[in-house]
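Side project, low priority. Logging it here so it doesn't get lost.
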Amino acid sequence: MPRVEFTQRLHEARAWGSALERQRNALAEAGIEVGYATVRGLRLRYGWRAGQGMPLLFCNGIGANMELALPLVREMPGVPVLLFDIPGTGGSPPAWVWPSYSQYARYAVGLLDVLGLRGPFAVAGVSWGGGLAQRIALDYRERVRGMILMATSPGVIMVPGRVSALLRMTTPQRYLSRSYMARNAAAIYGGEMRGRPDRAIAFAGMTRAPEPRTYLQQLLAILSFSSLPWLHRVRCPALVMTGDDDPLVRPVNARILAALLPRGRLHVVAGGGHLFLALQPQHSGATILEFLRGLAQDERPGTQNPPD
């Protein structure tokens, strides 16, 4: 991309108001009500939108605040959605938690319980949150009716992404500097970010920098996680989505997940990078809505899920 065009798009993207104002507006547009709840002694910030059917629990990427899922949520009207900030991200205060997905799963499902949502639910996870979604589907499989995995992998034992992208992911710098994000987004995220620094700046404007120790805790969690030994035990329907141009999590990892999950189904997003759910929200939302309608059909009286 010519440097002059890059600089022009970067300049245009910077002409905004405050980040917090944009985030508040985005929450309102998605119909999300923000609140705080104490779960297992920790105060968690959450976003809830009421709707019809069982709730969808959404697990975000590493260091990410819940606002980053809003483009997708807006494309799924009527679906009850629960978003939340991991301790130390977004508006949730930091905490010294044991860095394991099992522990994070207890907080996530504990939040559902505290809010009175004690019945069945579907779980979705993107990138780091995909590992959390897998753990929730295993540990709470009597309640999880469906799982959606996006731009994720089976954990530390995976087909690795490009070294240049992985090195840039070891630091939360992309949450701290819009210029850093604009310069490195294409290398990190691929797909829709290529040649579009304006999109990188727009995405950065919706982020809140995580606490450094939180980022480290989340890194330690993924480094000690692999779902390969037990994926065959997750017997709920599963939609596995990947972009075909994801430098961080290569598409082959999604194929592995879909193959090992007993009821897994693969969906490849053409031209999609690591952030396809936010940058192709209409396509992603329509695909997920179709999957959720299938779950609702399975939940009707007379239908029965296969035994565990």
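Brief comment: The chain has one domain: 25-163+211-296.
Revisit when time allows.
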